[in-house]
Amino acid sequence: MSKQKAAANRLLCESGLLDELSRYGNVHIVGSYSMNLMVWNDLDIDVENEAIALNHIHEILKFILDRFSPVWFEGKQQVHGDTRKNEGQ
């Protein structure tokens, strides 16, 4: 196991990050971690929850920012299908 993956395991488990994220949905550790190819301290995590509320996203962000003080943080929302009605047709 690489030093980066060992550090990622500590971050996920010992810091409570994995437990915290699990409160909001199914957690998937993806990217180089899942393929055992970590060479940088970069961890990609997806939290699967099709009905997550915006305030829950804010709670996750607060936990991460307060606990870790990251240099870089990126969050994205993936939309599963377009549920908007065609207006004017």
Layout of strands and helices, then pairs:
Blueprint: H1 3-13, H2 17-22, E1 26-30, E2 44-48, H3 54-68
Antiparallel strand pairs: 1-2
Explain this structure to me?
By secondary structure, this protein is of the alpha+beta class. The chain has one domain. It is 36% helix and 11% strand. The protein has helices at residues 3-13, 17-22, 54-68; strands at residues 26-30, 44-48. The protein has a two-stranded antiparallel sheet with strand order 1-2. The longest helix is centred in the last third of the chain and has 15 residues, at 54-68. The termini are far apart.
Short description:
This protein has 89 residues and is of the alpha+beta class. The protein has one domain.
Overall average residue pLDDT: 84
**Whole-Å distance between the termini?**
57 Å
Determine the strand fraction and express it as a percent band. 5-15%
- Count of helical regions: 3
Tell me the total number of β-strands.
Answer: 2
- Listing every helix as H and every strand as E from the N terminus to the C terminus, the arrangement reads HHEEH
Any idea how many domains? 1
Strand order of the largest sheet: 1-2
**Derived structural class:** alpha+beta
> How would you characterize the largest beta sheet?
2 strands, antiparallel
User: What is the quaternary state of this protein?
Assistant: single chain
Could you name the ranges where pLDDT drops below 50 across 5 or more consecutive residues? 82-89
**Which bin fits the share of residues in helices?**
25-40%
Gyration radius, in Å: 16 Å
**What is the molecular shape?**
globular
